[in-house]
Design goal:
Helix content: 40-55%
Largest sheet: 9 strands, mixed
Structural class: alpha/beta
Function: Probably acts as a heme chaperone, transferring heme to an unknown acceptor. Binds one molecule of heme per monomer, possibly covalently. Binds 1 [4Fe-4S] cluster. The cluster is coordinated with 3 cysteines and an exchangeable S-adenosyl-L-methionine.
Shape: globular
Number of helices: 13
Strand order of the largest sheet: 7-8-6-5-4-3-2-1-9
Distance between the termini: 33 Å
Subcellular location: Cytoplasm
Number of strands: 12
Radius of gyration: 22 Å
InterPro entries: Aldolase_TIM (IPR013785), Coproporphyrinogen-III_oxidase (IPR034505), Elp3/MiaA/NifB-like_rSAM (IPR006638), HemW-like (IPR004559), rSAM (IPR007197), rSAM_sf (IPR058240)
Main location: cytoplasm
Protein name: Heme chaperone HemW
């Protein structure tokens, strides 16, 4: 969750949504995202809306679970008053920050706030993010017994020097332990990796991939490092303390990830995500890419219901004040027009392996796509024949086009 909030219209203090938000709601799934904005230390590359203990100023971690539950009650009231029909929650995702910095009982209480106000659909996916050094076996058992189904560990790398550059604090040797503890508790497991860290070699990245695969998680996410303006890492690169990430090397790393994960039995289903099978895809993240509805709880959280998107105030103290006053914590919102919604649908679905059925596009869009495919086919064919000099990134794109068109 990026720390910068977009500019848009003021959000009403009562949170009420326009009548258009209810249109077609029965056809869309409903999820809940709970942002826990606390971290033990701030990683130099991170631009998310997170706070260490010394940065809270006027807010307490110990109060946060009750504040989140209060927003859930508020959300239930807003949706009912806006005539958005009741729907059971199909996915719940605790993100951060580090949700597991809170006591396990706090996360359980927040999940109970979801079920008390919205109910859970049968077979609902309930995920929390966790750092490998923020949980033990007892903690994970408590979550599983309360109804959590999945944990996503921020592994990032198995190479100590890479973790040091990223300012991650966990011992990489702990990752297999926490994965086993999660398995023993009956939880599904995802491992999150980052590639392209300054100084990281292709050999380093291979070590991280092979270590992750050896843990046999159900799901792997692999994200290229993005240097966000204003972060410590951006300042280090600007001053020459560390090098600039190499985009061609990042393309090699992506290709290696796809090769090794595919060989290990993981299927690619979204630009940065692989799963052992369709059942272990991240259903919550898929809901973002497919335009479903969700309510985002917590400071800086974003929500979307029926083409209305809003985002909460950033600082935990400002958030707590709004919640205590019984007001919407939203800082701003926007109502998307049909053209914007269609554009976003296309952009998001093209990130996924399933893609977009051509029949769902407007006639003019179908014509444009046909022309684009024809051009990309020519470029891909020329690249494969060695008639076109492309960067590594360009060759990767050409390969992706061919794979799509010939069905791998």
């Amino acid at each position: 969750m990026p720390s910068a909030l977009p500019l848009a219209d003021p959000a009403p203090s009562d949170g009420l949504l326009p009548a258009t938000a209810a249109v077609g709601a029965h056809e869309r799934n409903f999820g809940v995202y709970l942002h826990v904005p606390f971290c033990r230390v701030r990683c130099g590359y991170c631009d998310f809306n997170t706070y260490t203990a010394t940065e809270l100023r006027g807010a307490k971690q110990s109060d946060y679970a009750d504040e989140a539950v209060a927003e859930l009650r508020f959300g239930k009231s807003v949706l009912a008053s806006s005539t958005v029909p009741d729907r059971p929650v199909s996915t719940v995702f605790f993100g951060g920050g580090t949700p597991t910095l809170l006591p396990a009982d706090d996360l359980v209480r927040m999940l109970r706030g979801v079920t008390d106000n919205f109910d859970l659909a049968p077979g609902a996916e309930v995920t929390t993010e966790a750092n490998p050094d923020s949980v033990d076996a007892a903690y994970l058992r408590t979550l599983a017994e309360a109804g959590f189904t999945r944990v996503s560990f921020g592994m990032q790398s198995a190479v100590p020097s890479v973790l040091a550059t990223l300012e991650r604090t966990h011992d990489p040797a702990r990752v297999p332990l926490v994965v086993q503890w999660a398995r023993d508790a009956g939880l599904g497991v995802s491992l999150d990796l980052i590639y392209g860290t300054p100084g990281e070699t292709l050999a380093d990245w291979r070590v991280s991939l092979e270590t992750a695969i050896a843990c046999a998680p159900d799901h792997v996410s692999a994200y290229s490092l993005i240097v966000e303006p204003g972060t410590k890492l951006a300042r280090q690169i600007r001053s020459g303390v560390v090098g600039t990430p190499d985009e061609d090397l990042q393309a090699d790393m992506y290709e290696l990830a796809d090769d090794l994960l595919t060989e290990a039995g993981y299927g690619w289903y979204e630009v940065s995500n692989w799963a052992t099978d369709d059942r272990h895809r991240s259903r919550h993240n898929l809901s973002y890419w497919t335009g479903e509805d969700w309510w985002g709880v917590g400071p800086g959280s974003h929500s979307h219901v029926g083409g209305v998107r809003w985002w909460n105030v950033k600082h935990p103290a400002a958030y707590a004040q709004r919640i205590a006053a019984g007001e919407s914590p939203a800082a701003g919102r926007e109502t998307l027009d049909d053209e914007t919604r269609e554009l976003e649908r296309i952009l998001l679905l093209t990130r996924t392996r399933d893609g977009i059925p051509i029949r769902t596009l407007a006639p003019e869009a179908r014509t444009a796509v046909a022309g684009l495919i024809a051009e990309e086919l020519v470029d891909a064919r020329q690249a494969l024949l060695g008639r076109l000099e492309l960067t590594r990134r360009g060759r990767l794109l050409a390969d992706a086009v061919v794979r799509r068109l010939v069905g791998d």
